[in-house]
Amino acid sequence: MGKILLSFDTEEFDVPREHGVNITLEESMKVSVEGTCRILDVLNRNGVHATFFCTGNFARQAPDVVRRIMDEGHEVACHGVDHWQPKATDVAESKQIVEGVTGRQANGYRQPRMFAVSDSELARVGYRYNSSLNPAFIPGRYMHLSEPRTWFMKGGVMQIPASVTPWVRFPLFWLALHNLPEALYHALVRRTLSHDDYFVTYFHPWEFFELNAHPEYKIPFIIRNHSGHAMVQRLDRLVKMLTAHGHEFITFTEFVERSLGASSPSIASAR
User: Fold this and answer.
1) Residue 19 gets which letter from DSSP?
2) Which segments of the chain does DSSP mark as H helices, in order?
3) Cα(200)–Cα(158) distance, rounded to whole angstroms?
Protein backbone atom coordinates (compact mmCIF):
# COMPACT_ATOMS: atom_id res chain seq x y z
CA MET A 1 0.00 0.00 0.00
CA GLY A 2 0.97 3.66 0.09
CA LYS A 3 3.57 5.40 2.20
CA ILE A 4 2.52 8.21 4.56
CA LEU A 5 4.98 11.04 5.22
CA LEU A 6 3.32 12.84 8.11
CA SER A 7 5.18 15.94 9.29
CA PHE A 8 4.94 18.78 11.77
CA ASP A 9 6.53 22.22 11.51
CA THR A 10 7.62 22.40 15.13
CA GLU A 11 8.12 26.10 15.60
CA GLU A 12 7.42 28.89 18.05
CA PHE A 13 3.87 30.20 17.72
CA ASP A 14 4.30 33.46 15.79
CA VAL A 15 0.96 33.59 13.92
CA PRO A 16 -0.32 36.52 16.10
CA ARG A 17 2.55 38.62 14.74
CA GLU A 18 1.06 38.30 11.26
CA HIS A 19 -2.01 40.08 12.65
CA GLY A 20 -0.24 42.86 14.53
CA VAL A 21 -0.15 41.16 17.94
CA ASN A 22 3.12 41.00 19.84
CA ILE A 23 3.83 37.72 21.59
CA THR A 24 6.87 36.83 23.66
CA LEU A 25 9.05 33.85 22.85
CA GLU A 26 8.14 32.39 26.25
CA GLU A 27 4.41 32.52 25.52
CA SER A 28 4.78 31.30 21.94
CA MET A 29 6.84 28.34 23.15
CA LYS A 30 4.23 27.46 25.78
CA VAL A 31 1.59 27.18 23.05
CA SER A 32 3.79 25.08 20.78
CA VAL A 33 5.05 22.76 23.52
CA GLU A 34 1.50 21.97 24.60
CA GLY A 35 0.50 21.32 21.01
CA THR A 36 3.52 19.13 20.33
CA CYS A 37 2.79 16.96 23.36
CA ARG A 38 -0.79 16.46 22.16
CA ILE A 39 0.50 15.44 18.74
CA LEU A 40 2.95 12.97 20.27
CA ASP A 41 0.16 11.45 22.35
CA VAL A 42 -1.89 10.80 19.19
CA LEU A 43 1.03 9.25 17.34
CA ASN A 44 1.99 7.13 20.32
CA ARG A 45 -1.56 5.80 20.75
CA ASN A 46 -1.66 4.79 17.12
CA GLY A 47 1.86 3.40 16.94
CA VAL A 48 2.95 5.51 13.94
CA HIS A 49 6.01 7.64 13.23
CA ALA A 50 6.40 11.11 11.74
CA THR A 51 9.01 13.77 10.96
CA PHE A 52 9.25 16.92 13.07
CA PHE A 53 10.85 19.94 11.37
CA CYS A 54 12.15 21.95 14.33
CA THR A 55 13.30 25.56 14.38
CA GLY A 56 16.50 26.38 16.20
CA ASN A 57 14.43 28.38 18.69
CA PHE A 58 12.24 25.38 19.50
CA ALA A 59 15.19 23.00 19.83
CA ARG A 60 17.01 25.36 22.20
CA GLN A 61 13.95 26.25 24.28
CA ALA A 62 12.43 22.76 24.55
CA PRO A 63 15.22 20.14 24.47
CA ASP A 64 13.17 17.78 26.64
CA VAL A 65 10.35 17.77 24.08
CA VAL A 66 12.86 17.18 21.28
CA ARG A 67 14.23 14.25 23.28
CA ARG A 68 10.72 12.83 23.62
CA ILE A 69 10.25 13.14 19.85
CA MET A 70 13.38 11.04 19.29
CA ASP A 71 12.69 8.59 22.10
CA GLU A 72 9.31 7.76 20.56
CA GLY A 73 10.89 6.90 17.23
CA HIS A 74 10.27 10.05 15.20
CA GLU A 75 12.71 11.94 12.99
CA VAL A 76 13.93 15.45 13.80
CA ALA A 77 14.72 17.69 10.82
CA CYS A 78 15.41 21.43 10.45
CA HIS A 79 13.04 24.37 10.01
CA GLY A 80 15.25 27.45 10.15
CA VAL A 81 16.29 29.26 13.32
CA ASP A 82 13.79 32.03 14.13
CA HIS A 83 10.52 31.33 12.34
CA TRP A 84 9.50 34.97 12.22
CA GLN A 85 12.81 36.27 10.84
CA PRO A 86 14.32 33.72 8.42
CA LYS A 87 17.82 34.46 7.14
CA ALA A 88 20.01 32.97 4.44
CA THR A 89 22.40 31.73 7.14
CA ASP A 90 19.63 29.65 8.74
CA VAL A 91 20.22 26.70 6.42
CA ALA A 92 23.58 26.02 8.05
CA GLU A 93 22.89 27.42 11.52
CA SER A 94 19.66 25.47 11.91
CA LYS A 95 21.52 22.22 11.22
CA GLN A 96 24.20 23.06 13.76
CA ILE A 97 21.65 23.88 16.46
CA VAL A 98 19.39 20.87 15.89
CA GLU A 99 22.30 18.44 15.68
CA GLY A 100 23.79 19.96 18.82
CA VAL A 101 20.55 19.37 20.72
CA THR A 102 19.76 15.91 19.32
CA GLY A 103 23.26 14.50 18.97
CA ARG A 104 22.12 13.09 15.62
CA GLN A 105 22.52 14.02 11.98
CA ALA A 106 19.72 16.17 10.58
CA ASN A 107 19.02 15.03 7.02
CA GLY A 108 16.18 17.32 6.01
CA TYR A 109 15.17 20.94 5.77
CA ARG A 110 11.94 22.88 5.37
CA GLN A 111 12.02 26.65 4.99
CA PRO A 112 9.68 28.62 7.29
CA ARG A 113 6.32 29.24 5.58
CA MET A 114 7.45 26.93 2.75
CA PHE A 115 9.27 29.82 1.10
CA ALA A 116 12.12 29.41 -1.40
CA VAL A 117 15.53 28.33 -0.14
CA SER A 118 18.97 28.11 -1.76
CA ASP A 119 19.45 24.71 -3.38
CA SER A 120 23.21 25.14 -3.53
CA GLU A 121 23.36 25.97 0.17
CA LEU A 122 21.26 22.91 1.06
CA ALA A 123 23.69 20.71 -0.85
CA ARG A 124 26.76 22.44 0.56
CA VAL A 125 25.63 22.00 4.15
CA GLY A 126 24.85 18.32 3.58
CA TYR A 127 21.07 17.94 3.62
CA ARG A 128 19.71 14.85 1.87
CA TYR A 129 16.23 16.25 1.25
CA ASN A 130 14.29 19.50 1.11
CA SER A 131 10.54 19.75 1.74
CA SER A 132 9.96 23.47 1.13
CA LEU A 133 7.55 23.32 -1.79
CA ASN A 134 3.76 23.41 -1.84
CA PRO A 135 3.04 22.92 -5.57
CA ALA A 136 -0.31 24.70 -5.53
CA PHE A 137 -1.83 28.14 -6.03
CA ILE A 138 -2.73 29.71 -2.69
CA PRO A 139 -3.47 33.45 -3.04
CA GLY A 140 -1.03 35.60 -1.12
CA ARG A 141 1.25 32.68 -0.32
CA TYR A 142 2.16 30.26 -3.14
CA MET A 143 2.09 30.28 -6.92
CA HIS A 144 3.74 27.00 -7.86
CA LEU A 145 1.46 25.46 -10.45
CA SER A 146 4.37 24.92 -12.85
CA GLU A 147 6.50 23.07 -10.29
CA PRO A 148 6.61 19.26 -10.08
CA ARG A 149 3.92 17.88 -7.78
CA THR A 150 5.84 14.74 -6.78
CA TRP A 151 9.40 14.17 -5.62
CA PHE A 152 12.38 14.98 -7.84
CA MET A 153 16.13 15.46 -7.56
CA LYS A 154 17.83 18.84 -7.76
CA GLY A 155 21.50 19.44 -7.12
CA GLY A 156 21.88 16.08 -5.43
CA VAL A 157 19.13 16.86 -2.91
CA MET A 158 15.75 15.11 -3.04
CA GLN A 159 12.90 17.63 -3.25
CA ILE A 160 9.76 16.36 -1.49
CA PRO A 161 6.77 18.67 -2.17
CA ALA A 162 3.66 18.65 -0.01
CA SER A 163 0.93 16.57 -1.62
CA VAL A 164 -1.73 18.14 -3.79
CA THR A 165 -4.44 16.30 -5.68
CA PRO A 166 -3.70 15.13 -9.24
CA TRP A 167 -4.81 17.40 -12.08
CA VAL A 168 -6.56 20.12 -10.03
CA ARG A 169 -3.70 20.43 -7.51
CA PHE A 170 -5.93 21.08 -4.52
CA PRO A 171 -3.64 21.44 -1.47
CA LEU A 172 -4.06 18.76 1.19
CA PHE A 173 -2.10 20.52 3.93
CA TRP A 174 -3.19 21.57 7.41
CA LEU A 175 -5.82 24.17 6.44
CA ALA A 176 -7.67 21.59 4.35
CA LEU A 177 -8.16 19.26 7.31
CA HIS A 178 -9.31 22.19 9.44
CA ASN A 179 -12.00 23.34 7.05
CA LEU A 180 -13.11 20.58 4.69
CA PRO A 181 -15.68 17.98 5.74
CA GLU A 182 -13.57 15.10 7.03
CA ALA A 183 -15.12 12.57 4.65
CA LEU A 184 -14.15 14.75 1.68
CA TYR A 185 -10.61 15.32 2.95
CA HIS A 186 -10.14 11.59 3.54
CA ALA A 187 -11.43 10.81 0.04
CA LEU A 188 -9.02 13.31 -1.54
CA VAL A 189 -6.12 11.83 0.42
CA ARG A 190 -7.01 8.32 -0.74
CA ARG A 191 -7.34 9.53 -4.33
CA THR A 192 -3.89 11.11 -4.18
CA LEU A 193 -2.40 7.98 -2.61
CA SER A 194 -3.81 5.79 -5.37
CA HIS A 195 -2.21 8.07 -7.96
CA ASP A 196 1.18 8.75 -6.31
CA ASP A 197 1.65 5.76 -3.97
CA TYR A 198 2.67 8.14 -1.20
CA PHE A 199 1.23 11.14 0.65
CA VAL A 200 2.98 14.14 2.23
CA THR A 201 1.24 16.56 4.57
CA TYR A 202 2.16 18.90 7.38
CA PHE A 203 0.67 20.51 10.47
CA HIS A 204 1.86 22.82 13.27
CA PRO A 205 1.77 22.29 17.05
CA TRP A 206 -0.19 25.50 17.66
CA GLU A 207 -3.13 24.09 15.66
CA PHE A 208 -3.64 21.64 18.53
CA PHE A 209 -3.85 24.44 21.12
CA GLU A 210 -7.24 25.91 22.07
CA LEU A 211 -6.97 28.98 19.84
CA ASN A 212 -10.68 29.81 20.14
CA ALA A 213 -10.15 30.47 23.86
CA HIS A 214 -7.68 33.27 23.07
CA PRO A 215 -9.31 36.10 21.09
CA GLU A 216 -6.36 38.32 22.02
CA TYR A 217 -4.28 36.45 19.42
CA LYS A 218 -6.59 37.73 16.65
CA ILE A 219 -6.36 34.48 14.73
CA PRO A 220 -8.61 34.27 11.62
CA PHE A 221 -11.49 31.80 11.75
CA ILE A 222 -10.06 29.69 8.92
CA ILE A 223 -7.12 28.87 11.23
CA ARG A 224 -9.09 28.64 14.51
CA ASN A 225 -11.73 26.38 12.99
CA HIS A 226 -11.52 22.91 14.55
CA SER A 227 -8.36 23.82 16.46
CA GLY A 228 -7.34 22.42 19.84
CA HIS A 229 -8.98 19.16 20.93
CA ALA A 230 -11.10 19.13 17.77
CA MET A 231 -7.89 19.02 15.72
CA VAL A 232 -6.48 16.31 17.98
CA GLN A 233 -9.53 14.22 17.12
CA ARG A 234 -9.25 15.00 13.40
CA LEU A 235 -5.61 13.96 13.35
CA ASP A 236 -6.43 10.79 15.28
CA ARG A 237 -9.20 9.86 12.84
CA LEU A 238 -6.97 10.60 9.84
CA VAL A 239 -4.23 8.33 11.19
CA LYS A 240 -6.74 5.59 12.00
CA MET A 241 -8.29 5.80 8.52
CA LEU A 242 -4.92 5.51 6.81
CA THR A 243 -3.83 2.67 9.08
CA ALA A 244 -7.10 0.80 8.47
CA HIS A 245 -6.46 1.02 4.72
CA GLY A 246 -3.07 -0.61 5.20
CA HIS A 247 -0.88 2.41 4.50
CA GLU A 248 2.55 2.65 6.12
CA PHE A 249 3.78 5.66 8.09
CA ILE A 250 7.49 6.32 7.48
CA THR A 251 9.91 9.18 8.14
CA PHE A 252 11.21 11.39 5.36
CA THR A 253 14.69 9.88 5.63
CA GLU A 254 13.23 6.40 5.25
CA PHE A 255 11.40 7.62 2.14
CA VAL A 256 14.63 9.02 0.68
CA GLU A 257 16.50 5.79 1.30
CA ARG A 258 13.79 3.62 -0.23
CA SER A 259 13.19 5.88 -3.22
CA LEU A 260 16.81 6.42 -4.18
CA GLY A 261 17.43 2.72 -3.84
CA ALA A 262 14.92 2.21 -6.63
CA SER A 263 15.50 5.15 -8.99
CA SER A 264 16.67 8.74 -9.22
CA PRO A 265 14.48 10.73 -11.63
CA SER A 266 15.54 14.05 -13.04
CA ILE A 267 13.42 17.15 -12.73
CA ALA A 268 12.34 16.63 -16.33
CA SER A 269 10.88 13.21 -15.56
CA ALA A 270 9.06 14.24 -12.38
CA ARG A 271 5.29 14.44 -12.63
Assistant:
1) G
2) 25-46, 56-61, 63-71, 90-102, 119-125, 174-179, 182-196, 221-224, 229-244, 252-262
3) 14
Contact 199, 192 (CB under 8 A): yes
CB 96 within 8 A of CB 59: no
User: How does DSSP classify residue 250?
Assistant: -
- pLDDT higher than 50, residue 89: yes
Burial of 70 (0-12, 13-18, 19+ CB in 10 A): middle
- How much of the chain is helix, strand and coil, in % rounded to 5? 45, 15, 40
Crossing angle of helices 229-244 and 182-196, in 10° steps, is 40
Is the pLDDT score of 139 beyond 90?
no
pTM tops 0.85: yes
CA distance 82 to 253: 24
Interatomic CA distance for residues 77 and 98, integer angstroms: 8
Rounded Cα–Cα distance for residues 81 and 218 (Å): 25
Under 8 Å CB-to-CB from 90, ≥6 apart: which residues?
56, 80, 81, 82
Residue 264: predicted pLDDT: 44
User: Region 141-148: what's the mean pLDDT?
Assistant: 76
User: Do residues 147 and 160 lie in contact, with contact meaning Cβ atoms separated by under 8 Å?
Assistant: no
Question: Which of 5-9, 72-76, 110-114, 195-199 is predicted with the least confidence, judged by mean pLDDT?
Answer: 110-114
Rounded Cα–Cα distance for residues 245 and 29 (Å):
36
The Cα–Cα gap between 81 and 105 comes to 17
